[in-house]
Every structure is written in C-alpha cells, then in structure tokens.
Amino acid sequence: MRTIAHLSDLHFGRIDHEVLEALISDLTMVRPSLVVISGDLVQRARKRHFRAARAFLDRLPAPWLVVPGNHDIPAYNLLARFTMPFRNYRRYITPDLSPFIEDDEIAVLGINTARPLILNFAHGRINHRQIEHIVTAFRDVPARVFKILVTHHPFLPSPDKPSGKILLGRAREALPALETCGIDLLLAGHFHRGFSGKITDHHRHLTRPILAAHASTATSTRLRDEPNGYNLITVAEPSVTFEERVWTGYGFSASECDTYARTPRHHMATPA
Ligand SMILES: [Fe+2]
Ligand SMILES: [Fe+2]
C-alpha cells in the first residue's frame, strides 16, 4: 500500500500561515509515502517566494515530487521570463523538470506544462518530446505497478465548466499515448478546485478509464469558492481511494471519499 498526499497551488507569497501550519501538522499525522505537488509553488517567481516554498518542502515528513506551474515563471520581468524562465525554480526547488520515482507499487512521473512563450501566460502545453518521454519512462514498468502522471495543467476542463476549454495544449493528442503506456492516474491543479473522476466521462473516445484528480489550493488565499484542501490518495491493489482533506477553520479533516477498483486487465472500474 502507498499513500500519496497530492497538494497543489501553494502560491507562496499569498499564503494563509495558519492554514500552512495546520497542513504540516496534518501531513505529519497522516504520514504519506510520498507528497506530490502539482505546480504553482509561488505567486510571483521571486527569490523570497521560492525560498519560502523551499523551507516548506524541507519540513515535509515524506519524500516529495514537484512540477512547475505557470506562476513559477516570472510574469512581469520579461527578460527573465523569455531567457531564464525556470532559473529560480531550478535553483531553489529542483533542477529536474521531469522527476520520476518508481518502486514495486507505484511509478510517478512529473512533466512540466508551464510555458513562457504562449499567448495566454496562464495556459500550458505538452510537446511531442514530452509525450515520447512519458511513453519511454513507463514502457518497462510492470503492469501491476500503479502509474501516475503529474502535470500542473489538467487534461480536463474545470469541474465547474464541464464543457469549457482544456487549458493544456495538445492534451487530446497526448491521451492515446497515455492509454497505450498504461497510465492509471493523472494528477493536476491550476483550477484551485478539488476533483476526482474518470477522464472517459469527458474524453468519450478513449477506452481506458484513466482516473484524474485535481487538488485545490492547499495553502493560498487565492480561493475559488471552496476551502483550502488536498487529496490523500491510497493505492492498495486492486483499489485506489481518494479522500479530500479540507480546511475547516481549525484543521484539516476528511471531506469526500471515493474508491475505484482495478479490473484484472488493470483498468479502473466504477466506484467500488
Ligand atoms: Fe494556481
Ligand atoms: Fe496555475
């Protein structure tokens, strides 16, 4: 069994410090096997924001895997944005923009979807080289191992606009490759709204019901009509459980909980 605390959109620089301390207490109590953070670690890509984010990472009671988000690139310093967009991220967080962790139960790959040069700074994109990298990374991972891909921008529209735009460029083109290499779960953030479900509910042409989970903002005051929260994901073959842990005003506690079962062909089925 593995437990993954899926956090997102920390936005250091726009932090609620009471929530931050409660989050660390909750993670210390939950003791996950791994903490995944799906981007937007900082608000403005400034050194002091990244230093604060790094201090948070150093307090985590578990190994961590992170990917950058659109806020981790300078927005207003155009020289830095266009010439060294990930300089502070690489310096303070990690030089690895495609982190990969594998053991005998889970394999987790992070892919950077933040782009400094696209017209709408907030949107993201996945490129052909990254799609190939995903296929290569998971190609030799055994079928029984639960495979997770982490991006900042989701492969689905916002949960409150199911027919809205997918903000990740080339998402539809990438999905058949993700099916082929047996990915079980997509983790993302960006919308500041918690969600878990099957991507086939939206991408109906796909046959493999890959699961997707979006985490709300764990610590920021940039809320979107829901409290701070994160996803606690338990992978216990053949099932996977999503528990949303939300800020109540005093601490984090369990809110919604869904369980999915894997079929013998290693596809996810409807909630158990
Ligand atoms: Fe964000
Ligand atoms: Fe974002």
Keywords, separated by commas or semicolons:
272 residues; Purple Acid Phosphatase, chain A, domain 2; 7-stranded mixed β-sheet; 28% strand; binds fe (ii) ion
Brief summary of the model shown:
Helix content is 22%, strand content 28%. By secondary structure, the protein is an alpha/beta fold.
Class in CATH?
Answer: Alpha Beta
Helix count from the secondary structure assignment: 6
Total number of beta strands? 15
The unique ligands bound to this protein are: fe (ii) ion
**What is the global morphology?**
globular
Q: Pick out the low-confidence regions.
A: none
Q: Quick one: CATH superfamily?
A: Metallo-dependent phosphatases
> What is the alpha-carbon Rg in Å?
17 Å
Summarize model confidence as the mean pLDDT: 93
Order of helices and strands: EHEHEHHEEEHEEHEEEEEEE
In terms of DSSP E residues, the strand content is: 25-35%
What would CATH call the architecture? 4-Layer Sandwich
Largest sheet: 7 strands, mixed
Q: Order of strands across the biggest sheet?
A: 3-2-1-12-13-14-15
The domain count comes to 1
